[in-house]
Task: structure prediction
Amino acid sequence: MSMTRDTKVTYGLLALFGIFGPILFPDYTLSIAYLWMMVLMASTWDTLGGQMGYNSLGNITFFGVGMYVSAIVQVSFFYEGGVAEYTSAMGSIKPEFTPAEYFWGLGLGILAAGVVGLVLSVIFSSFMFGLRGPYFAIGSLGLAIAVAEVTITIDYVGGASGISMPLFPGDIEFRSTFFYILCFVLTIISHFLLRWLYSTQFGLAINAIRDDEDKAEAMGIPTLAYKRIGWAIPAFFMGCIGAVAGNMAGFIDKEVAYPIPTFGIFMVAMALLGGKGTLWGPVLGAIIFHVIKEATWTYLLNLQWVALGLILIINIVYFQQGIMGWLQTKYPERFGIVVDTSTVTDADGKEAA
Result:
């Protein structure tokens, strides 16, 4: 997929902000890290929800699973007592990991979280894709709730008491920068992977499924295979970013790992705000939504949910195409969209309806 001049400028500005943001605004390093996390969440959700038309409310499942998988890997690889002893002590055991142990454990944990998320998506897809439309959305939400409830019954990972993550071995000021870099890098990788995929036959196939799945299948497109891939990609990246988020938080439990009322809904809202089914819509929506969220949390503490609720209402009722959808309709030539303005005349030379 070739880049236009506007696209190159956009990438350049985002790169400058990504590199110099923490330097210019050191007090907001973690906030900007969460901004990139939001971009990743919205963009990967749009693969299934926007590009393919399967609105999932359960992608947060892989986010939470990623947290716990990473914790298991980080602790079990370098703590002799194992995860069960580590969690059963309920914080009384504070093993110190060397920098090498911590960073190796974190790297392996992030990778394992992504792989486990991918595998689970394949398993869940064997029965979830028997549902369509609102039934799939409700079913995926039920899946997330069920996985969250099952997790707190497992004493091995701390049960309802949660689990403390290994302490970051470096300087506390560098901690924020380190996790910022991880969020930024994962977001870049996911964005360019999706950009490439949408330019291939994969992009055409999932758009065909969105437009009319039955016709797509009749034309010989293996719809189930494409749907599984379309869910596996978000699952992988949600698992990876969940592993990073768990270490950023320092402690995980059901509420931290499975924030269904917040992040679970935010990723959908961001894609809708920016314009689902587009590459840049979720990115733009995530940036705007996160800035408004942080501003209302800071200056309108008692009205933050009212403000976010109004955004959703206005977006869904009056602005369903999202920002990118509106811009593409208003300025199609800026997005490489060719509009046929020729008129068709009838036998009398009059314009046909």
In short: The first helix runs from residue 5 to 24.
